[in-house]
Queue: 2 jobs
Job 1
Amino acid sequence: MEKILKDVVLDNSDEIVRMWIEQVKKNQGGAFYQSLSDEALENTNREFANAIFEGIQKGKIAKTPLDEFAEKLINLGWPLTYLTDGMQVFRRSVVKFIIHKWEDLDFSEADNYFELGDDYFPWVLEKVDEWVDPLVNELVSEYSGSWENIVSLQRMALQELSAPLIPVMDNITIMPLIGTIDTERAKMVMESLLDGVIKHNAEVVLIDITGVPVVDTMVAHHIIQAAEAVRLIGSRCILVGIRPEIAQTIVNLGIDLGKFPTKSSLRKGFQTALELTNREIVEDTNREEEIENLIESLDRSEEE
Amino acid sequence: MRIPILKLHNYLLISIQTELDDKTAIQFQEDLLEKIHSSGATGVVIDLTSVDIVDSFIAKVLGDVVTMSDLMGAKVVLTGIQPAVAVTLIDLGIHLQDVPTALDLEQGLIKLRQELEE
């Protein structure tokens, strides 16, 4: 009996698709659909309908046209609601169509014929669900799979960006922190900080918090812990990039940062770091003197 | 097992290369103080590069050794503490606040000279 039902639906696919498109169009009033041309929407709807019918016809196979269609939509950035909405409307259309045609159907020659009487409605619903549900599941899993993929890629990118360490000079290393610091990130910062200090043999590490929007007790606690750990492995830590509002929060929260030096800007911190490693910036004045001498000698020769 | 203590001019060099258990640590504390007394050393470098695990007791002993040596007139510098060890110590709340540290033996000796000059 199921086969007859299926055949009826497949034979009359044109009519069902017509019903379906009519209904789907009514639902497509959102901002996303308005940005599309009517033609594109029409084509996609038609492609969707074909994919659904092919999916029902062939049942479960490795790569259905519906999969390919879903992949295409994902790449084009269509919302998932388009697909779920379409499938829901499809279910309604098919049920409506079968109920409408019920009187004309003849099951008497079917293999496993049994009398349904007036209770045929739940049975039809069940059968239609059996075709449609696997397709819906497949579509949703396709979509969520692609989202999970994106999320994991972004998490990886975030991890790579979260704790960079720049060895600017022999024995001086800078770690610029940008963005909010949570416990997980703080752990990564500490790890990469300590490993970096050992790797680059850094005597002084500058932690730049210019890009950290908020410093609360938790963030301060993590920074202090990192600085203490750095001191234990035999290096020194300077906290730089303390903006006025951050200084105010730190004092208002009663956080004690007195144990290690702090500076307002990376420039000042770097100078301190140079002093700590017994170095200084010397401006090269010789060249200027040379030029002055040259000009003077030229003047003199002109006078003569 | 005893930890060897080497003498270099006025300094004592110790490189701990075994797992430190409680007994070894106490033995080491006694040996070091005895050696400081007998040699009249003014500086001590304890290198912990090969130490992977430090528990709270060992940390306390190390802190004590530093204070005791200070009392006997020898400055102590700890060198080569591994990142993992540092993290553990911080997590345990052991900050070794007054103990000078350095990255490696070389810088430890430089630091010791600086401290002794002051």
Job 2
Amino acid sequence: MTSDKAIAVEKISFKDAVEIAKKGTHCGMCRFDFLESGVCPAGRKHGFLAYWPQGRMELVQQLDSGRVKPTEKLIDIVNSCSLCGICDKQCNFTTQLRPEKVAKALKDFVDNFDKNEFQNVSEDDILRGLREIVGEEWATNDPCIIASYTMSILPSNTKLNYYIVMPENTEQVSKIIRFANKNNIPFLPRSGGTAFSAAAPTVLAKGLSLEQGIVIDLYRLRKLEIHPESCTATVGAGITMFELQKEALKNKLRALAAEAGAHVCSNIVTTGIISTWGNRYGAFADNFIDLTTVDDEGDIKKHSDWERNNPYSTEPGFTNLSLTPHNIVTEAVVKLHPIFDDEEVVLVPFDNLRDAYRLLIKLGKRGVGLSLAVLSRKYLAEFLSPTLQISKDFDYVCKNYLKLNYVVSVICNQDDKKIVEDMVDYTIDQSLMKSLILGAPRFSTLKDSEFMKILSEEEDPLNAIFAGPMRDHLEKALDPSPENVSKVFDDDLQEFFKKVYSKPEMTDIVWLHAFRILPTRMLRQQMFMGPGGAMWTGDENHYLNWIQMFSDMGDKLNVEHSLGFITPLDHGKFAYMEYDYYYDHNDPDVCDRISKIVVDSMEQSLVMGKVLTILNYLFKGIYRKEHVLYPLAEGISKEEQELFKELLETVLGEEL
Amino acid sequence: MKFLSDEWIKTAKEITSEKLDPEKDLKKATTSLINVIDNIPPDGKSVYFYIAVKNGIITEMLLDQTGSLLEKDAEFVVTGNYDTFVQILKGEMGTLIALIKNRVKIKGDKVKALQFVKPMDKLNSCLREIETEY
């Protein structure tokens, strides 16, 4: 059944649809309602990725490549889509893509496909066994559904020798694992899949993905209960950070949250929730009261079981590498934190990293602020700009005219705001940030402004623009309004985006920091890989040299790069840093260079010492930070370096 | 011949002693390990496969289903599913990949274990030459 709206969807060729699909980011933002536009009804009903816009985009690519042949299920997949347009609104906000066009092209493809050519799929014993556990509807070996999981848990170069199963509770997860073990079949849980998608085109894919076996898609574990009296929430593995944050906010509480689309439980497991709020709210096991886990034997355990072995410790050292989780966390009881009435954002602009870093660590050690980070110019431009081109121009203006290269971003109450303001000469406040969001298109046009060129010749352009009367002129010149910002979107979406940008939260920096719906905009430039990790902050030069190492590596290998963010941990004694490399994930040459950066930067970080690299960070989130970050890692010896190289060569060798 | 049968072990001893160079392939290593192979079809039992190496020469290769080999106090105990060991032996998955994907668990000094990964891969390549029925 096709709605009237469907007729209006612009028809494009299958080849054009493939080109759109290739830009798909697997960010998962189409799987929750972050714009109050609703959420894909087909995806919500059927669950499997192929029924979501994200999965349809991947499926189109896989059909085009010939890796998968149409099955009868494909008819059901395309018929489930009413071309309602929700996905276009969501996807356009973050990546400017139009997944609905892809869905329409897929419908046309199926309509024109010879029905006699559909591939038959039969049920085997394994599928029967899985269906006995979860029900007929929630387990499949259909290649079209399997193919939609490519690049978000499955590599692109394997046979589609998989089963996808969607349990609805912990007991079913346990039964699936026991069943898999009994039949000697490997398995891997899937939540949001975004972490894998960033690494999928690189050398890390081999270690992170499932080469065959059972994908346990955890989306159906959707329990979400807020307990205001204890400031906690019980969260199932299918719940995203956005969904948790939204419910918490109704109770004037806040969760420590990663990106909006990250699933809470899997994010706890993967990295212990890396967030700019970590210095105040905690890291690793600080974030939860209790976890329900299923181990690789299928045994269900709770962290709170008093008779169990210590679940909070992990072995130290660089050899403690794991690219898949030791346990599946099916449910977490997470901590929530009070929201204060007088919270506000203060941003301190800097032209150089050393001064920004120094202020950040000082604030971190003093315990000032709730959310605390150095954000790069690139981050600021990407987050605030509604389109990629505007972000590039925004970045240009900041770099060349304002010398605004970093900001220390502080979310704090009024007491802390005063402390920050006393420490610096000038700040950017909520009002100016709102104007920059609603006036981003106009701001980007300053690229051609003669006045800005003159301003850039000032000794301290930042001081000139932010400390004096110029600030008000700038704010006025931006002509900020929801109407103006919405004009940069496609004609048919402008009215919708005018309403979106009219909502107070869309220009509320505190809300945006907590709900983190903007970071996905970094993906519209294709993909990024963000190595880094946590380093001891006791030696400023050591820390800054570490960042410089990542920068040099990007220059050497000719990959676009930029510092992402730095945020303190454990009262400023450590700081997490993400350094981002931007690349076209369809270009094998640049993917190879990214792989080299991942490996070489890890090796050099280990040699430098006092660092927990991102690869060592992975899958340590359920342990205490005291066990993960301490003892402080010394630089590895020459002998260990050789061993490390050999290790990587053995694991990843031929592909480097 | 059937994987992990007496005949297979006998052939494994012969072929490794014939084809592996103690210095070049096994790096004059001295160590011992027990592979605990779980979930062996059809009944899901476990098998313990003990290997001792001295100065790059394989001195012992033993098989047991009771767990008594654990008393030998090997330097490393590597535990995993039958299918994983088959994948490793067939060369479909490296030992280290199996380790970082949590397909096998290792007890013992990890830094030291890493030094033996390459020799063990040589050993596995050699065992691959046996026509094995899994």
